[in-house]
Amino acid sequence: MAERVGFEPTVRLRAHLISSQARSTTPAPLRGGRSYRLPGTGETAEMEARNSGQIILFGSIAGTCPERNMSAYCASKAAVNMFAEILWKELENADIKVLLVCPAITNTPLMRFVTDENAPNTLKNSLAQGKLNDPEKVVDAIEKALTKEELICYPTPDAVYATRIRRFFPNYWWKLISKNS
Questions:
Q1: Burial category of 18 from C-beta neighbours within 10 Å (exposed 0-12, middle 13-18, buried 19 and up)
Q2: How far apart are alpha carbons 61 and 23 in whole angstroms?
Q3: Element (H, E) at 98
């Protein structure tokens, strides 16, 4: 039977499960895949030759706003977030739009793991209270963001609030997480 990652405290994660989680939540470019090559090669070379294109990467506020039992997921999303920012700067002289999408808790297939006994209570509570973001609203925000000159799309107000709280009040972030767990 294949093991799945689910939610686990960091100290109990086996190395191969961390690696599996990182592979499943990290885009191919960060895993050595072929969907992105260095600027001037591969798909980006075609975009640069046309002097147009769009690259949309799905990060998460989890890459900025950590949560217990989600270390591998949060770390992989932090990698996506950083990769997108660096790619954006590397391609700043081309007319290639790089957009990093950082949603908050959204009603996606990942939510099927929220029933896991080690899933963070903040996720379980959001699911039970019907507070998951609508994927259609996320898509609408992405379409709107593509018309602007911004790197990061925070598609819902809760994504904006969470990242601001974490950035300016990191200790308070943990108090909020504990309070809502």
A1: middle
A2: 18
A3: strand 96-101
pLDDT of residue 99: 95
Q: What letter would DSSP give residue 132?
A: P
Cα(9)–Cα(118) distance, rounded to whole angstroms? 8
* CATH 3.40.50.720 for domain 10-179: yes
The Cα–Cα gap between 181 and 165 comes to 17
The chain-wide mean pLDDT, for the chain, equals 80
Distance of alpha carbon 94 from its chain centroid, rounded?
25
* Contact assessment for residue 73 and residue 25, using Cβ atoms and an 8 Å cutoff: yes
| 76-100 pLDDT, tens digit each | 999 999 999 998 988 888 888 999 9
